[in-house]
Specification:
The protein is about 50% helix and about 5% strand. The chain is mainly alpha-helical. The strands form two sheets. The chain has a two-stranded antiparallel ribbon with strand order 1-2. A two-stranded antiparallel ribbon has the order 3-4. Strand 3 (about 145) and strand 4 (about 150) form a beta hairpin.
Length: about 220
């Protein structure tokens, strides 16, 4: 089975735990990713502007312009790779590429199915009203989103615990890896929904593991 299957059909998140991982590199990754954070700061300003344009496009035409969709998907992919490399995962020591593309060879991957039509009525409420329950959960998971990367909260705490495990045992606990990826998967599903890229409501379900669950055909 391909690493990106479809438990939640519109959004597919995959991650591979690299081995071996450096015992100490995680201590300085906050410095190494500074160039990415600078670029992502401006990319997320553009992301928000594109989302506003897409809002009006969906409202009047029921379509999310494909070029705008691909750009926002690229920003989410870039953010996920940087987060996975740094303190949203620490699951790889491979430096993230400066790229909006899919980068299929990188151990953190994201894909979102392009919607041919989107609901005019949902676009008015899903990003603020319907998503509020998820936002409350994500504050606990992430400590808040900052210019496209997430820091603080449960995800970072668990990643740092994994870092200490690496330092003392040279191993990333597998169960911890699966939980961290599951939490990030939840975040990315909600991000796609809130940014109007899908009408499928994210499930209140923690799908753990590097691959999407095999039960890909279950209805939501």
């Amino acid at each position: 089975m391909d690493a990106i299957s479809s438990s939640y059909p519109p959004v597919r998140v995959a991650a591979v735990l690299d081995a071996p991982l450096s015992r100490w590199l995680w201590l300085v990754k906050w410095i190494l990713v500074i160039p990415h954070w600078i670029v992502l700061f401006f990319l997320w300003i553009a992301f928000l502007a594109v989302t506003v344009i897409a809002f009006f496009s969906v409202l009047f035409t029921e379509r999310y312009p494909r070029g705008l969709f691909d750009f926002n998907l690229g920003v989410l992919r870039w953010s996920w790779r940087v987060s996975y490399y740094s303190y949203g995962g620490l699951g790889t020591d491979r430096y993230p590429p400066f790229s909006l593309g899919p980068e299929s060879g990188y151990p953190a991957r994201l894909d979102i199915a392009y919607p041919e039509r989107l609901s005019r009525s949902q676009v008015l409420v899903k990003w603020w009203l319907l998503a509020i329950p998820h936002y409350l959960v994500l504050v606990f998971f992430t400590g808040g989103l900052r210019a496209g990367w997430w820091s603080g909260g449960l995800i970072t705490l668990l990643a740092v615990i994994a870092g200490f495990a690496l330092a003392f045992t040279s191993r990333y606990p597998r169960d911890l890896f699966e939980l961290v990826v599951g939490l990030n998967r939840w975040v990315l599903r909600v991000a796609a929904y809130a940014s109007l890229m899908t009408d499928a409501y994210p499930p209140f379900r923690l799908d753990q593991g590097g691959d999407e669950p095999a039960s890909s055909q279950q209805s939501l």
